[in-house]
Automatic annotation (TrEMBL), chain A:
Xref: Pfam families: DUF726
Segments crossing the lipid bilayer: 327-348, 355-378, 384-401, 493-514
Lineage of origin: Eukaryota, Viridiplantae, Streptophyta, Embryophyta, Tracheophyta
UniProt protein name: Transmembrane and coiled-coil domain-containing protein 4
Family: Belongs to the TMCO4 family.
Gene3D superfamilies found in the cross-reference section: alpha/beta hydrolase
Main localization, broad class: membrane
Keywords: Membrane, Transmembrane, Transmembrane helix
UniProt region (Disordered), positions on chain: 28-60
Subcellular locations according to the entry: Membrane
Superkingdom in the source lineage: Eukaryota
InterPro entries: AB_hydrolase_fold (IPR029058), DUF726 (IPR007941)
Topology of the protein relative to the lipid bilayer: Multi-pass membrane protein
GO cellular component: membrane
TrEMBL record, chain B:
Record has Protein transport as a keyword: yes
Protein name in the entry: Ras-related protein RABC1
Main localisation: membrane
SMART domains tied to this protein: RAB (SM00175), RAN (SM00176), RAS (SM00173), RHO (SM00174)
GO cellular component terms, A-Z: plasma membrane
One annotated GO biological process: protein transport
CDD domains, per database record: Rab18 (cd01863)
């Protein structure tokens, strides 16, 4: 009955590996790979087998039954339910490295009971995935033009705003402030040269990054024995396994006894993180996984559409029964009426507009992967067909995010709107990125910092409270150009922001008074960002992103919005599994008295805090709390699991985040599972 | 009660990891079921690995036994190798009515133990199951005793079906573990750590420094 290409034993192994990856991913939340705490004898401690309790006693674990993360996958894979406890315990009980190799071997084995056409199917699927991946890569041909555009933007803004800050620095060196003109000039020259040299360094950075990933994976995850096992495992088998696991993650099979309350339709961020780790173990490029995601999504949409058109010809009752059987009811209930929107022909773009709207997407896929490939894909997805939560949930997503002008919902926030960026919309992408600017001079600054970035997820920029943000940004910029600020910086230029502000208790009252007029605007902006954060959390909880894992990136007050959002999510019951990754840049958030640990737990994958020790503006604007509480934007956060990245060298001042963010993101290589930054993160 | 550890649900003095190995169909899962829930039923072959917890009072100690029941089928053999690690007790089971299950113990399973077990002192136990089928018996008790003597392990014959000697089998094994100081030390770590509930040791230098 199963349409799976894998034998039962292989599916068992796939389920086990997924469980192991899921548990490891949870461990890495607080103990990232390669961190010093990774070396402590934890591994040995648990491996002695005597000191850890059984999984069934710890509902906090992702592999525990109550999380609803693992068992549905087993069920989809048709793993015998008697084997589930064993798998869960195996995943949670002992260090993964002892088991990964064994399960890989089981996966690689060809057993007699597999259907003879399976290898061909696997190969067809793998070819399809390859083709899809390369077509996704091709869409990046406009990379250079984008890059150019971004450079222009950088150029423009750098000229406009960085003069004050950079100049004051060069001034300290020269103690010369008169020929502003000249300085600006040389500045723009530097900016001209930079893009080219940057390309090169970028290449280097990337290779370093990769090297470090490799060494990581060798050091921490793959003993030599497993490398051998990996060689035994064919590429097409790996792709097939990932494909089936993803299908299993997305499928929403109705459960008879609802034991787990937390079950949610759609694509859980924790699943995606586990798949990312698994792909790393498999040594399969992440873009392949993204291609798989798109293929599953598209075929699922197509199948759903087909079911829908059939349904029209049938009596209402029988079709209802069919929907129910397919498990789509569950999806509808959980996606909060998005299915209504679909069938009601509302704004949901991909599905409601009918097959014609879908056709371009499918139309691009079929020629790319070939009809044979598509058949393989469809048959693999066929098992998902009746039970697709995804199609229903993400079909409406575009409308969900961009369509929601939630401004009126919380009276205090005047503006809160998502704007689509990039061309990945309605392309069946299963990941969403929300990008939040927080230091802006005009409305364009909400979009332009993010436009040049190459990414395969569906991307949205959040435009919020532009009036206040522009006001506070401009005020700060004006203040920075004032003589008082120059004076102030000259005094402290040799120190880091933190140390000099500490020393600045002795600042003349006049200097401090000068910042007063920033303070009022700043206070308003901070207040609004907290509220916007809450609003963002509500959007995510409502599933307007289509129940897909979200990556949140923000700088300045935008980072604060994200942090507040995470804190709010941490307070809710249903928080886990929404957010996959977070990057905060120059975040005006205190370190003490804030719930960083709780916020960390909400994020399934990487959590990056990028800080610059020379970020004057942030220090000054935030100084009220600084002395006692610490500040995320200018110093590392000592919370386990948070990657601290020092970007001082890339940042000339707070406004630099407008154009430097993209480069920082590139160097972070968010698509790798391991913490990566081409500069080794500095320890304080 | 030298090292009690506070547990939310059930307190226990020691936690031991036990492992069941042996050919397919010798009754490992039945033995475990008989021990943990005093019942017997026809079971289908184990897939991969199963796991059960049993709390028991043996030798005056409160014990928590984490018992791993492995599949005997050839195709899963590759998996079981990783479960030897850290086990304090290993139970080798054979079927007294099938000679090859007995010979395979020395040909295959004993070698696996040597290869994969990380515990020098770990206690091994030989168990001849299905003695209720006395009429079909082909492996004599004497042979079992000789094997046990040769390999330096405990020996018992039992029946998962009639529950004859099932409790004794586990008890003897555990008593022997309790007699072995190094194993006792492993099982009695007070630090029953849960890595997610507990903060990992981090130098608390956080933001108090000024540079």
């Amino acid at each position: 009955m199963s349409s799976s290409m894998l034998t039962p034993a292989q599916r068992y192994a796939a389920g086990a590996l997924f469980g192991l990856a899921l548990h490891q991913a949870q461990i890495h939340q607080t103990r990232p790979l390669g961190s010093p705490s990774d070396d402590d004898p934890t591994g040995e401690r648990t491996s002695s087998g005597s000191s850890s309790d059984s999984v069934s006693e710890d509902p906090q674990l992702w592999v525990h039954e109550s999380s609803g993360l693992l068992r549905p996958v087993f069920r989809f894979l048709e793993v015998d339910s008697k084997a589930w406890t064993g798998l869960e315990e195996t995943a949670g009980y002992s260090p993964a490295k002892h088991h990964v190799g064994a399960f890989l071997r089981l996966l690689a084995e060809e057993s007699g009971d597999s259907p003879s056409e399976a290898p061909d199917k696997e190969r067809a699927l793998a070819n399809g995935v390859d083709a899809m991946a390369s077509s996704m890569e091709k869409t990046h041909v406009d990379y250079n033009s984008k890059k150019k555009k971004h450079c222009e933007y950088e150029h423009e803004w750098r000229e406009k705003f960085s003069t004050a800050e950079t100049q004051s620095k060069s001034e300290v060196a020269n103690v010369l402030a008169e020929n502003q003109q000249e300085t600006t000039h040389s500045m723009s020259e530097v900016a001209n040269v930079l893009p080219e040299s940057r390309q090169e360094t970028k290449g280097n950075a990337a290779s370093i990054g990769h090297a470090s990933v490799k060494s990581h994976s060798k050091l921490d995850e793959t003993p030599p024995e497993e490398v051998l096992n990996l060689l035994m495992l064919s590429y097409s088998r790996k792709v097939t396994v990932l494909y089936e696991l993803l299908s299993a993650c997305l499928a929403n099979i109705p459960e008879h006894k609802k034991k787990s309350k937390q079950q949610r339709a759609g694509y859980d961020a924790r699943h995606r993180v586990a798949l990312r780790l698994l792909a790393t173990w498999f040594d399969v490029n992440w873009i392949k996984m993204e291609a798989i995601e798109t293929m599953v999504a598209c075929s699922a949409m197509a199948l759903l559409k087909e079911a829908e058109s059939k349904e029209e010809n049938q009596s209402e009752q029988s079709s209802w029964a069919k929907w129910k059987r397919g498990g789509i009811i569950g999806a509808a209930a959980l996606t909060g009426g998005t299915l209504m929107a679909i069938t009601g022909g509302l704004a949901a773009p991909a599905i409601a507009a009918g097959f014609s709207a879908l056709a371009p997407t499918l139309g691009t896929i079929i020629p790319v992967i070939g009809a044979g490939g598509f058949a393989a894909v469809a048959s693999a997805a066929g098992s998902v067909a009746g039970s697709v939560a995804v199609a229903a949930s993400f079909g409406a997503a575009g409308a969900g995010l961009t369509g929601s002008k939630m401004a009126r919902r919380i009276g205090d926030v005047d503006e809160f709107e998502f704007k689509a960026i990039g061309e990945n919309h309605n392309q069946g992408r299963l990941a969403v990125e929300i990008l939040v600017s927080g230091f802006v001079f005009e409305e364009e600054d909400f979009l332009r910092p993010w436009e040049g970035q190459i990414d395969n997820s569906e991307r949205y920029a959040l435009q919020w409270e532009s009036k206040h943000l522009i006001a506070v940004s401009t005020a700060i910029q004006d203040w920075l150009t004032s003589n008082l600020a120059l004076e102030l910086m000259k005094r402290g230029a040799m120190m880091t922001v933190l140390s000099s502000l500490m020393a600045a208790l002795a600042w003349p009252a006049t200097l401090l008074a000068a910042t007063d007029f920033i303070d009022s605007k700043w206070t308003i902006a901070v207040n609004r960002s907290d509220k916007a954060g809450k609003l963002l959390a509500e959007v995510l909880l409502k599933g307007l992103q289509g129940h897909r894992p979200v990556t949140l990136v923000g700088f300045s007050l935008g980072a604060r919005v994200i942090f507040e959002c995470l804190q709010f999510l941490a307070e809710t019951q249903d928080h886990a599994g929404l957010v996959e990754r977070v990057v905060l840049l120059g975040a005006p958030v205190a370190i003490k008295d804030e719930h960083w640990e709780a916020a960390r737990k909400v994020v399934a994958g990487r959590f990056v805090n990028a800080y610059a020790t020379n970020d004057w503006m942030l220090g000054v604007a935030f100084r009220a709390n600084l002395l006692t509480q610490g500040l995320a934007g200018i110093q590392p956060i000592e919370v386990p699991g948070i990657e601290n990245v020092d970007v001082s060298e890339m940042i000339e001042g707070h406004s630099s985040y407008l154009w430097a963010t993209q480069r920082i993101l590139e160097q972070l290589e968010l698509d790798t599972y391991y913490p990566v930054f081409d500069n080794t993160p500095l320890k304080p | 009660m030298d090292s009690p550890s506070s547990q939310e649900s059930v307190g226990f003095d020691y936690l031991f990891k036990l492992l069941l190995i042996g050919d397919s169909g010798v009754g490992k899962s039945s033995l475990l079921l008989s021990f943990t829930s005093d019942s017997f039923q026809d079971l289908s072959p184990t897939i991969g690995v199963d796991f059960k917890v049993k709390y028991a009072d043996i030798g005056g100690k409160k014990l928590k036994l984490a018992i791993w029941d492995t599949a005997g089928q050839e195709r899963f053999r590759t998996l079981t190798s990783s479960y030897y690690r850290g086990a304090q007790g290993i139970i080798m089971v054979y079927d007294v009515t099938r000679r090859e299950t007995f010979t395979n113990l020395s040909d295959i399973w004993a070698k696996e133990i040597d290869l994969y077990s990380t515990n020098q002192d770990c206690i091994k136990m030989l168990v001849g199951n299905k003695v209720d089928k006395e009429s079909e018996r082909v492996v004599m008790k004497k042979e079992g005793i000789n094997f046990a003597r040769e390999y330096g392990c405990l020996f018992i014959e039992c029946s998962a079906k009639t529950r004859l000697n099932v409790q004794q089998c586990f008890e003897e094994l555990v008593l022997k573990i309790l007699d072995t100081p190094s194993l006792l030390a492993e099982g009695s770590k007070v630090l029953k750590k849960n890595i997610f509930k507990q903060k990992p040791p981090q130098p608390d230098t956080s933001s108090s420094s000024c540079c």
